[in-house]
Amino acid sequence: MAVNLFKVVLVVIHVIFDIYAEARRLFRYAIQYFEDFCFGPWGLKAELDYVHRNKAPLTKPMSHIAVILGSEVVSIKDIVRIALWSHAAGASYVSFYDHSGKLKKCKSALDEALTSECQPKSHIPRTNGYKNGIAGKQYPHVMLFDITDGKAGIARIARELCEKALAKEITHNDINLKFLNEIVLREAGVPEPELGIYCGDICSTYGFLPWHSRITEFLPISSHHNVSVRTFVSVLRRFNKCEQRLGT
User: Fold this and answer.
1) Which residues, by range, are in coiled-coil regions (predicted)?
2) How far apart are CA 211 and CA 248, in angstroms?
3) CA 182, 187, 191: angle at the middle one, nearest 5?
């Protein structure tokens, strides 16, 4: 009897917490929507102008911005907006990481969406022998990654090095940290991101390129769905205030 009562109490506590978490999420969304409706810029051109105006005080370099989608369903419309905002903020590269691999299957749709927003027509560069990103003159190089590019990618490189060593194409003296660093960075085709934005309440990188995120500053947003340009700029401001100690 006591055990059953304990289970009931535990279930009730979980239900109450779930209701509280959902109410808190909806409240934050309502506040954000109200602020964006009253004060936020409307339309892509106005949003890009807003980013341009607010990037002037930002002094930290941002050549590469990474966005970790987490467990969220991919929204092509919002990914395009984030990519263009990142370019307006000065990033030459923006990468989107979806550990499930579903985003990579949407490359054509993403390319079409970017093309419809920008001129000239975009093209898809080849990286590592397969199509892994999108690039154009009026927006950054957009790279798409999944779990196979993270720890699995490092494991694949290690296996290939072992095979080359067995075939006597290289010696064990050739394999050092500098050698590995050059290979791994060349495989990804992008520099290390200065800023990583992860979506959702779970603080996790979901296996995002561990070799490339040694000095990355990770900051959260509630979701990439319907994310506002004001939220994006606030993340840039937070990043600009971060003091990187590099383990010291």
Assistant:
1) none
2) 20
3) 70
